[in-house]
Specification:
Number of strands: 8
Number of helices: 8
Shape: globular
Low-confidence stretches: 1-5
Strand order of the largest sheet: 2-3-8-4
Structural class: alpha+beta
Largest sheet: 4 strands, antiparallel
Order of helices and strands: EEHHEHEEEEHHEHHH
Mean pLDDT: 94
Helix content: 25-40%
Distance between the termini: 55 Å
Protein backbone atom coordinates (compact mmCIF):
# COMPACT_ATOMS: atom_id res chain seq x y z
CA UNK A 1 0.00 0.00 0.00
CA UNK A 2 1.06 3.57 -0.67
CA UNK A 3 0.67 6.13 2.06
CA UNK A 4 -0.76 9.60 1.68
CA UNK A 5 -0.65 12.31 4.35
CA UNK A 6 -4.04 12.15 6.08
CA UNK A 7 -3.55 15.67 7.42
CA UNK A 8 -3.37 17.22 3.93
CA UNK A 9 -6.14 19.79 3.64
CA UNK A 10 -7.48 21.49 0.51
CA UNK A 11 -6.52 25.07 -0.24
CA UNK A 12 -8.47 27.45 -2.42
CA UNK A 13 -7.59 30.05 -5.04
CA UNK A 14 -9.46 32.42 -7.32
CA UNK A 15 -6.55 33.46 -9.54
CA UNK A 16 -4.46 32.04 -12.37
CA UNK A 17 -0.73 32.41 -12.97
CA UNK A 18 1.12 32.74 -16.26
CA UNK A 19 4.92 32.86 -16.47
CA UNK A 20 6.87 33.40 -19.67
CA UNK A 21 9.67 30.85 -19.29
CA UNK A 22 11.42 31.23 -22.68
CA UNK A 23 10.97 33.02 -25.96
CA UNK A 24 12.42 33.95 -29.31
CA UNK A 25 9.98 36.68 -30.23
CA UNK A 26 10.53 40.23 -31.51
CA UNK A 27 8.95 42.55 -34.05
CA UNK A 28 12.02 42.14 -36.25
CA UNK A 29 11.07 38.48 -36.72
CA UNK A 30 8.00 39.60 -38.63
CA UNK A 31 10.04 41.92 -40.82
CA UNK A 32 12.77 39.55 -42.02
CA UNK A 33 10.17 36.87 -42.67
CA UNK A 34 8.12 39.30 -44.78
CA UNK A 35 11.00 40.91 -46.67
CA UNK A 36 12.52 37.65 -47.89
CA UNK A 37 9.85 37.64 -50.61
CA UNK A 38 11.41 40.73 -52.20
CA UNK A 39 15.00 40.90 -50.96
CA UNK A 40 16.04 37.28 -50.42
CA UNK A 41 19.09 36.88 -48.21
CA UNK A 42 19.28 40.66 -47.68
CA UNK A 43 16.22 40.30 -45.47
CA UNK A 44 18.55 39.22 -42.65
CA UNK A 45 19.64 42.86 -42.36
CA UNK A 46 16.39 43.45 -40.47
CA UNK A 47 17.96 41.76 -37.45
CA UNK A 48 20.26 44.73 -36.92
CA UNK A 49 17.75 47.48 -37.74
CA UNK A 50 15.25 49.26 -35.53
CA UNK A 51 11.86 47.66 -36.26
CA UNK A 52 10.14 50.97 -35.48
CA UNK A 53 11.17 52.21 -38.93
CA UNK A 54 9.07 49.45 -40.51
CA UNK A 55 5.99 49.51 -38.31
CA UNK A 56 3.98 50.48 -41.40
CA UNK A 57 4.86 47.13 -42.97
CA UNK A 58 3.73 45.28 -39.85
CA UNK A 59 0.44 47.15 -39.92
CA UNK A 60 0.01 46.38 -43.64
CA UNK A 61 0.61 42.67 -43.05
CA UNK A 62 -1.91 42.65 -40.22
CA UNK A 63 -4.51 44.69 -42.09
CA UNK A 64 -4.35 42.65 -45.29
CA UNK A 65 -4.04 39.37 -43.36
CA UNK A 66 -0.67 38.20 -44.61
CA UNK A 67 -0.30 35.86 -41.67
CA UNK A 68 2.74 33.66 -42.19
CA UNK A 69 5.38 36.29 -41.21
CA UNK A 70 3.83 36.31 -37.72
CA UNK A 71 4.66 32.62 -37.24
CA UNK A 72 8.48 32.90 -37.13
CA UNK A 73 8.74 33.33 -33.37
CA UNK A 74 8.06 31.29 -30.26
CA UNK A 75 6.84 31.83 -26.71
CA UNK A 76 6.58 29.22 -23.95
CA UNK A 77 4.35 29.92 -20.96
CA UNK A 78 4.00 28.01 -17.69
CA UNK A 79 0.36 28.24 -16.67
CA UNK A 80 -1.40 27.30 -13.45
CA UNK A 81 -5.20 27.24 -13.70
CA UNK A 82 -8.22 25.02 -12.99
CA UNK A 83 -8.55 21.90 -15.14
CA UNK A 84 -11.72 23.21 -16.79
CA UNK A 85 -9.67 26.09 -18.19
CA UNK A 86 -7.20 23.66 -19.77
CA UNK A 87 -10.01 21.65 -21.34
CA UNK A 88 -11.08 24.82 -23.17
CA UNK A 89 -7.45 25.65 -23.94
CA UNK A 90 -6.92 22.34 -25.76
CA UNK A 91 -9.43 23.37 -28.42
CA UNK A 92 -6.68 25.63 -29.75
CA UNK A 93 -4.54 23.16 -31.69
CA UNK A 94 -3.01 24.92 -34.72
CA UNK A 95 0.28 26.52 -33.75
CA UNK A 96 0.17 25.29 -30.13
CA UNK A 97 2.09 22.64 -28.19
CA UNK A 98 1.11 21.47 -24.70
CA UNK A 99 2.55 19.39 -21.88
CA UNK A 100 0.46 19.15 -18.70
CA UNK A 101 1.19 17.59 -15.33
CA UNK A 102 -0.16 14.05 -15.10
CA UNK A 103 -2.39 12.49 -12.47
CA UNK A 104 -1.08 9.11 -13.64
CA UNK A 105 2.46 9.84 -12.51
CA UNK A 106 2.16 12.11 -9.50
CA UNK A 107 -0.19 12.58 -6.58
CA UNK A 108 -2.32 15.61 -7.35
CA UNK A 109 -2.21 18.40 -4.82
CA UNK A 110 -5.44 19.66 -3.18
CA UNK A 111 -5.58 23.16 -4.64
CA UNK A 112 -9.03 24.12 -5.91
CA UNK A 113 -10.76 27.01 -7.61
CA UNK A 114 -13.36 29.09 -5.76
CA UNK A 115 -14.43 32.33 -7.49
CA UNK A 116 -14.01 35.55 -5.58
CA UNK A 117 -16.60 38.29 -5.24
CA UNK A 118 -15.56 39.90 -8.54
CA UNK A 119 -16.66 36.84 -10.52
CA UNK A 120 -20.16 37.37 -11.98
CA UNK A 121 -22.27 34.34 -11.05
CA UNK A 122 -25.61 34.69 -12.83
CA UNK A 123 -26.22 34.09 -16.54
CA UNK A 124 -29.11 35.94 -18.15
CA UNK A 125 -30.47 35.59 -21.68
CA UNK A 126 -30.10 32.84 -24.24
CA UNK A 127 -27.08 31.46 -26.10
CA UNK A 128 -25.62 34.10 -28.39
CA UNK A 129 -27.23 36.93 -26.43
CA UNK A 130 -26.62 36.09 -22.80
CA UNK A 131 -24.78 38.24 -20.28
CA UNK A 132 -23.39 37.57 -16.82
CA UNK A 133 -24.38 39.72 -13.86
CA UNK A 134 -23.35 39.90 -10.23
CA UNK A 135 -24.83 37.35 -7.87
CA UNK A 136 -26.33 38.16 -4.51
CA UNK A 137 -24.39 37.71 -1.31
CA UNK A 138 -26.48 34.61 -0.64
CA UNK A 139 -25.47 33.16 -4.00
CA UNK A 140 -21.83 34.00 -3.35
CA UNK A 141 -21.96 32.33 0.08
CA UNK A 142 -23.70 29.27 -1.38
CA UNK A 143 -21.12 28.94 -4.15
CA UNK A 144 -18.23 29.12 -1.71
CA UNK A 145 -19.79 26.68 0.76
CA UNK A 146 -20.85 24.06 -1.77
CA UNK A 147 -17.58 24.18 -3.68
CA UNK A 148 -15.32 23.95 -0.65
CA UNK A 149 -17.35 21.15 0.91
CA UNK A 150 -17.46 19.19 -2.35
CA UNK A 151 -13.77 19.63 -2.96
CA UNK A 152 -12.98 18.46 0.56
CA UNK A 153 -15.07 15.30 0.21
CA UNK A 154 -13.61 14.54 -3.21
CA UNK A 155 -10.03 14.87 -2.03
CA UNK A 156 -10.70 12.71 1.01
CA UNK A 157 -12.04 10.01 -1.33
CA UNK A 158 -8.97 10.37 -3.54
CA UNK A 159 -6.62 9.93 -0.58
CA UNK A 160 -8.62 6.98 0.72
CA UNK A 161 -8.26 5.20 -2.62
CA UNK A 162 -4.53 5.92 -2.83
CA UNK A 163 -4.02 4.65 0.71
CA UNK A 164 -5.80 1.43 -0.26
CA UNK A 165 -3.27 0.88 -3.04
CA UNK A 166 -5.47 1.93 -5.94
CA UNK A 167 -3.52 3.32 -8.89
CA UNK A 168 -3.28 7.09 -9.22
CA UNK A 169 -4.73 6.95 -12.73
CA UNK A 170 -7.88 5.32 -11.33
CA UNK A 171 -8.21 7.30 -8.10
CA UNK A 172 -7.99 10.65 -9.90
CA UNK A 173 -11.40 10.01 -11.47
CA UNK A 174 -13.10 11.24 -8.27
CA UNK A 175 -11.48 14.69 -8.48
CA UNK A 176 -13.44 17.63 -9.97
CA UNK A 177 -12.42 19.93 -12.81
CA UNK A 178 -12.02 22.78 -10.31
CA UNK A 179 -8.69 21.21 -9.31
CA UNK A 180 -5.66 23.27 -10.32
CA UNK A 181 -3.26 21.84 -12.86
CA UNK A 182 -0.16 23.22 -14.56
CA UNK A 183 1.18 23.03 -18.08
CA UNK A 184 3.65 24.42 -20.56
CA UNK A 185 2.01 26.01 -23.60
CA UNK A 186 4.13 27.04 -26.59
CA UNK A 187 2.80 29.19 -29.42
CA UNK A 188 3.75 31.81 -31.98
CA UNK A 189 2.30 35.30 -32.32
CA UNK A 190 -0.20 34.29 -34.98
CA UNK A 191 -1.64 31.42 -32.94
CA UNK A 192 -1.69 33.61 -29.82
CA UNK A 193 -3.59 36.35 -31.66
CA UNK A 194 -6.20 33.81 -32.75
CA UNK A 195 -6.51 32.66 -29.13
CA UNK A 196 -6.87 36.23 -27.86
CA UNK A 197 -9.46 37.08 -30.49
CA UNK A 198 -11.68 34.29 -29.16
CA UNK A 199 -10.82 34.19 -25.46
CA UNK A 200 -10.77 37.87 -24.47
CA UNK A 201 -13.24 40.71 -24.69
CA UNK A 202 -11.76 44.03 -25.78
CA UNK A 203 -13.14 47.39 -26.84
CA UNK A 204 -10.96 47.34 -29.99
CA UNK A 205 -12.34 44.01 -31.22
CA UNK A 206 -14.46 44.17 -34.36
CA UNK A 207 -15.72 40.61 -33.84
CA UNK A 208 -17.44 40.06 -30.49
CA UNK A 209 -16.28 37.25 -28.24
CA UNK A 210 -17.91 35.67 -25.19
CA UNK A 211 -15.16 33.86 -23.27
CA UNK A 212 -15.50 32.22 -19.91
CA UNK A 213 -13.93 34.60 -17.44
CA UNK A 214 -11.35 32.17 -16.10
CA UNK A 215 -9.74 31.47 -19.48
CA UNK A 216 -9.93 35.19 -20.25
CA UNK A 217 -7.82 35.79 -17.14
CA UNK A 218 -5.16 33.52 -18.61
CA UNK A 219 -5.40 35.29 -21.97
CA UNK A 220 -4.98 38.71 -20.39
CA UNK A 221 -1.80 37.65 -18.64
CA UNK A 222 -0.37 36.08 -21.79
CA UNK A 223 -1.20 39.17 -23.81
CA UNK A 224 0.51 41.46 -21.29
CA UNK A 225 3.78 39.56 -21.66
CA UNK A 226 3.53 39.21 -25.44
CA UNK A 227 2.91 42.97 -25.79
CA UNK A 228 6.25 43.66 -24.13
CA UNK A 229 8.07 41.33 -26.54
CA UNK A 230 6.39 42.51 -29.76
CA UNK A 231 4.91 45.97 -29.11
CA UNK A 232 4.54 46.94 -32.78
CA UNK A 233 2.81 43.68 -33.64
CA UNK A 234 0.54 44.02 -30.62
CA UNK A 235 -0.35 47.60 -31.57
CA UNK A 236 -1.19 46.52 -35.12
CA UNK A 237 -3.35 43.68 -33.75
CA UNK A 238 -5.40 46.19 -31.77
CA UNK A 239 -5.51 48.75 -34.57
CA UNK A 240 -6.97 46.19 -36.97
CA UNK A 241 -9.80 44.88 -34.85
CA UNK A 242 -7.96 42.13 -32.95
CA UNK A 243 -8.47 39.66 -35.78
CA UNK A 244 -5.61 37.22 -36.30
CA UNK A 245 -4.05 37.55 -39.78
Amino acid sequence: MSETPAETKPSFRSDVTVDLVKHTAADSDVLWAARVSTTGEQSLEELSKDPERSKGLINFLMRDRHGSPFEHNSMTFFISAPIFVFREFMRHRVGWSYNEESGRYRELQPVFYVPDAARKLVQEGRPGKYVFVDGTQRQQDLTERVMTETYGRAYEAYQEMLAAGIAREVARAVLPVGLYSSMYATCNARSLMHFLGLRTQHEAATVPSFPQREIEMVGEKMEEQWARLMPLTHAAFNANGRVAP
